[in-house]
Amino acid sequence: MLEKEETIEKKKTGIVVRLMITLLLMVSVLAGIVVVLRVLGRENVMTAVAGSDELIAQLGEQPSSNSAATLQEGHILYNGQEYALNEDIITILVMGIDKETVNEIGGQSWSSDEDEYQGGQADALFLVIINPHDESIKVVAINRNAMTDVDVWGADGRYDGVYTKQVALQHGYGDGGPKSCEHQVKCVSRMFHGIKINAYAAISMDAVPELNDAVGGVTLDVLEDIVYPEYDMDLHKGDKVTLQGKKAYWYVRLRDENAFGSNEQRLMRQKQYLTAFVSTAKKQSMSDVRVAVTMYQTMQKYMVTDIDISSFTYLATEYMGYEFDDEHIYTLKGETIMGSQFEEFYIDENELEDMIVELFFEPV
Predict the structure, then answer these.
(1) CA-closest candidate to residue 116, choices 146, 178, 158
(2) Long-range pairs for 285-294: beta carbons < 8 A, 24 or more residues apart
(3) What is the pTM of this model?
(4) Could you give the 3-state DSSP secondary structure of residue 203?
(5) pLDDT per residue over 85-139, tens digit each?
(6) N- to C-terminal Cα distance for the chain?
(7) Number of domains in the chain
């Protein structure tokens, strides 16, 4: 009887040992997969989609002719100080794409397919800058009406040349997919004096309600009166609200097109919402990993991106803990004027160069 009990005990021990070995092997394999994905992801994400060393080199001043000093490659002289380009920065262009132009007062709508911008306009543009040197994530909110060089194609697909237009229109000259994104990335890189952009993500504005609700809603203080009964919006400046569903969409989308400068006000709301959303999403994801999975699955339905699973794994595991708050969101300075039909925002080039040097360079 004793021998039988010992035999049963040995079998149990053997099963436990085999189970532990199997689990360890599974963990090792999964860990190996993550390592491989991270390695591949880093290689992919460090490859620039757009950028021009020639344009970057034109920033700042050239050393005086009687100076013996010469600048190394990737270095510039700016306001008498030598700076080195931070080669470790990862820059991602995030686009909020509006496939349908909406008359925000009357609620009427018409398809963008009826005009020349069939790829949809980039209604929101954010340049995300990941800096491993100070472990920070900074974001530049780009005014959709910023006037810049835009590559234009005709309806027959023939390239017509470069024209000065609102930066948001660049995405429209394409297929609404990767080609449109690549055009937009090149346009923004050129606007930022050839700075490299490593990846892009174009997300339909229709994704906002689902993403918002995936984190349980976003709480914020309303920045201005947003009263549109036709959209069930009755928010007033100073109200503390938790945005749910379509209200989140309309908060970042609506503006009074008849009010001059309304796009700048909307941009401030978009900045505010982005900061609050990221903060909420990080907290929710830390307490429940399923939140992050749900957000990623939601975005996949609405997103065009060149960030594959390996790049996503690398970014998520490497930079999740980096610092980000409202002080890390920058806006371009300049002047808005009324054009022949639409508002036109002209960037202060001196302020832009200051920003580029601050965000992408380091003093030597």
Answers:
(1) 158
(2) 291/214, 291/215, 292/316, 294/214
(3) 0.76
(4) strand
(5) 998 898 999 988 876 433 332 232 323 344 455 667 888 899 999 898 998 989 9
(6) 81
(7) 1
